[in-house]
Amino acid sequence: MIRVRARVHGIVQGVGFRPFVYRLAQVYRLHGWVKNTPAGVVLEAQGQKEPVRHFLTVLQEQAPPLAAVSGVQVEEIPVADDAGFVIRASGGDGTAVLVAPDSAVCHDCLAELFDPADRRYLYPFINCTNCGPRYSIIRGVPYDRGLTTMAGFSMCEACRREYEDPADRRFHAQPNACPVCGPQLILRDAQGREVGGDPLATAIDLLKEGHSLAVKGLGGYHLAVDAGNEMAVAELRRRKNRDEKPFALMAPDMVAIAAFARYSPIEAGLLQGPEAPIVLLAKRDQRLIAPAVAPANGYYGVMLPYTPVHHLLLRDRFHALVMTSGNLTDEPICYRDEEALARLTPLADYVLSHDRGIHMRADDSVIRVFNGQPVFLRRARGYAPRPVTLPGSQQQVLAVGAELKGAVCLTRGDRAFVSQHIGDLKNVATLDSLAQIVTHLQDILQCRPQVVAHDLHPDYLSTAYAESLDDLPRLAVQHHHAHMASCMAENGLEGEVIGVVFDGAGLGKDGTIWGGEFLVGGYRDFQRCGHLRPVLLPGGDTAVREPYRMALAYLYDMFGEKLFGPALPCTNAVPSEKRGLFVQMLKRRLNAPLTSSCGRLFDAVAALLGLRQTVAYEGQAAIELEALAETSTAEDGYPFEIVDGGDSLSVDFRPMLVAMLRELSGGRPPNELARRFHHTLAAAAADTCSRIRRQTGHDRVVLSGGVFQNRLLSEMLCSLLEDDDFHIYTQRLVPPNDGGLALGQAIVAGRSPLCV
Ligand code: ZN
Ligand code: ZN
Ligand code: FE
To answer: Which bound ligand lies closest to the C-alpha atom of 481?
Structure first.
């Protein structure tokens, strides 16, 4: 007979872990107890040696679906004398509890949902300890019904029995509910009047008729229309004031998806996982889906239903619904009922809502798979607030990100909690959302930061927010250093590496705008060892929306004042009477700062090829350039030059552009040029890394920045670097774009003198 005490760390609370332990103890006929403590789950188990050993193995290997066991410490203790195995009441205040992310409805619940004999048949809020809302309904810790938005619903007798029975799948399932005692759906018209009849059946009819509905989900409201109805989709696009950005789709099951998109086993696994993200899938048959869903784009963003409401809406009814975030462009997703009615009814004809509150908003996550790896384009519902494990413990730091694709990060010990995607911090609504998320994370993690890290740019709203926390010491972290550190941190790297950071823009140490950077360094410090040859950014931010300006900046770099010589779509974009002024702007550098941005190089090439002279959203030209390049099989690149400027290398693409202009006038197909541009950029980056390795001896390369959302470039560069025996590290746990920046800022601050 032996007795062991085990401490189980990780996401083990609010996920059915204690009943799992209880059931396991029954199987192995062990005595003892299990309970939640501030440090995780603690248990004692007593029995014959062999069964106890098996019990401990199975404990880790077969943990419940939402649990994530990060470690188990076992010690042998003296045998005691208890009768049977019990679940003890929680002890302590739950400070080290890791709150679980929201999860898609599980298979068991789904089976009950569609079982006419089940007491929750067709009940839209069915859930259990293995699934359902978590992060979005939690108002504080410990995770207990009273501190969730379910507090106002008292369980009926049948629900309470399940809740109190350790052998039941709903033991301590905090959102447990049924049609008798739980939340209910309500359908309203645009004036806020309740629509009579069965809300679900009516909602389905309305969608079928081409109406748009605001639908309350887990982390906020969606705007839904029938994805097969071109008129309805086009009307939603008009109302949402969203000209070209693709809409996400929700399809009832994998068979339905297969009819209009292609997916690999990895993509299928992601779609069907409890996180249920939007996955970018290559288009297949385009007849089922209205063209207005994703114009000028080779991909659909697709997800599966993840709440019972979604299943009830879609099952046997639609090939797919458009399910786009319920917001006006550039504003955060709506999640409060009054707000939804006020702000979404101009966009939606009806609102399908319910009375279970959302405490924390969270958009859908977006993932793209390449190089056999999922890459986050947006990390939010289903993943937040799951932590990234840092390569070491550090002081508690709050990092607030930059401007685009905002997300914050709070560290505790060796864990970095990266928040859900917040949106572009360009307005007060988004800034308010950021402040709210910071407070919420501090509450549920019971953690107060000692230092705040922010971007070097003084004008970002995130920087202003950091400055408003005036009792905390602050550290400004250079944008691309943060990108590099983010990739290092999630890969657990120490020491110095080469960082290839390609993105749209970030303020450099020299006051110019960086974005095509080769850095060498670690968390503490870095050197800028190389960069793309800087060009002017004519009109500053306007150039981001008008890529022809970047093409002209490159033409100016090549031909000086004769830039309007070649007759091209980008030169034609400037009427002849305005050309003199444009040249003056460049010559005198009026509102034309220098930039080494790689994102802007993509814009310039897209404009030169006649693909896009203006864009509706940041990165659009680059996305379309990549899509165009994918239709060619050209294998070779163009010439380029790497110039050693003494303290740094400068990558000069003028030889490439000269060759491209020649081929353009020779009538070569643009898709071939687009692909050869990708080859050139990859070759130039790999060459620059080789030279830096010769100078420094470093052979580890981290790749970060929004440009690495580009599959083609990433795969080309990785394959060149691999052939050249580099060790390559990419971002898989947080996005390579600015959504992953806060993680880097947090570790740079944690390793800075402020924290040591
Ligand atoms: Zn379930
Ligand atoms: Zn009930
Ligand atoms: Fe960036």
So the answer is: 3
